[in-house]
Model the fold of this input.
Amino acid sequence: MHILAQMICEAIGEVLLAEESTLSAKSFATCFARRSGSSDGLNPFIAENYLAINVRKLLEPEPGPEIPRRPR
Done:
């Protein structure tokens, strides 16, 4: 699933769990903070200068060990 679709689903889940009735920027900010581990200043849903934030870099998975592929 595309990351944007995942974040939309997570934000909707935040609203439902909190028994709120409105999806808001706060819902998305909470999801982004959980995914990225970033401070509020690097959260594009609440930062003033959100255009300067490289969201892709913040959400890139940590490099891990190379997983060898089995030959076909």
Q: What stands out?
A: The chain has three helices and no strands. The longest helix spans residues 3-17. Residues 3-59 form one domain.
